[in-house]
Amino acid sequence: MVERPPRPSLGSLRGFGSPRWFALALGFVVFLAVPQFVGRATAHVRYVTPGADPQDAVAFLLSALTDPVNVALLGAGGVGLLGGLLAYLRVRPFRRDVTLLRRSLAEYRDLLPWLLRLAVGLPLVGAGFAGYFFSPLFQPAFPTVARLFGIAVGFLLLFGLATRLTAAVGLTGYLLGLVANPDLLLAVEYVPGFLAIILVGGGRPSADGVIARLADDDRTFYSRIDPFYRAVAVPFAERVADYERLVPVVLRVGLGVSFAYLGVVQKLANPGDSLAVVAKYDLTSVVPVAPELWVVGAGVTELAVGVALFVGLFTRFFSGVAFFLLTTTLFGLPDDPVLAHISVFGLVSALLVTGAGRYSVDRWIANEVGSDWDRESGEVVVAD
Predict the structure, then answer these.
(1) Domain for residue 7, yes or no?
(2) Is the Transmembrane helix keyword given for this protein (predicted)?
(3) Which of 100, 129, 202, 334 could form a disulfide with 160 if both were Cys (CB 3.0 to 4.6 A apart)?
């Protein structure tokens, strides 16, 4: 009797190849793609207002930044933030607390695929039932197709069935939609979300995990009839296994681009629409500053968060800042569509779990200060 060779298992795969080219290619695509659409997309604030008369962005910024009070407040905020970060690196208080916090968050890594699937699947299902395509600003000419696409892709991701293939289909649909309507740049966070899901797969709990257990056991009937597990799923998982470590890079680069885009293009370059939001919700009664300072402050804050996430600087801290910004926006703007933000909420939460990862300033800082380095999370670890 010929002994059958052992069958590969998804749980014990070892990838191959260097992931460096992947990170470089991702950055190159972002560099080429974003400028093509920056001048054409509409403002994110149009989720809550139909817009206002356009204003000259340069004249607006010159007017806002020549006001001594505005300059003083913005300068104080910037100096305070920079000083606080430098002081933290110098003193590094609450080391034990920070270490335990990071380790506690890192313990959820095995649930990262589930978190990513929820972050992308839930808003897609909502978009499908609402009849829009990824963004509420994109109402396609064929709403039935958009509904079926969102509901099907969303539910398959939530169930974790054919997860990687479904994410690839979703990413393709988004990119095709972006070509047709640049308004979809407002939902650019779907790109890192789909890419991350393609890299990590369904994880647990998922239908893919259950099917893999059945297909991997020679004694099951299903293992004899399954046509995809060993022929498709295992070989693909082998090829991408070594790139899973780049998931934090993919997430923070994608979210960094998203926040920077919202800050620069949607606010600083479109001050008229942003001023309409300030007036609609009487935000100057919440914080008594000039409306111009509201717009500039919001734009600069989102830009700072985006740049920090992009380069991996204090990643978990700025992920927390991003989470706070999103939360206050939803509570402060009661008619803002919650479904349009679930994806960002979920992906920012994923960064709280993963940390900065490779190719980050956090890693460089850790090497410079001579601390132990957690190569998985990409942040400083203080020994017990």
Answers:
(1) no
(2) yes
(3) 202
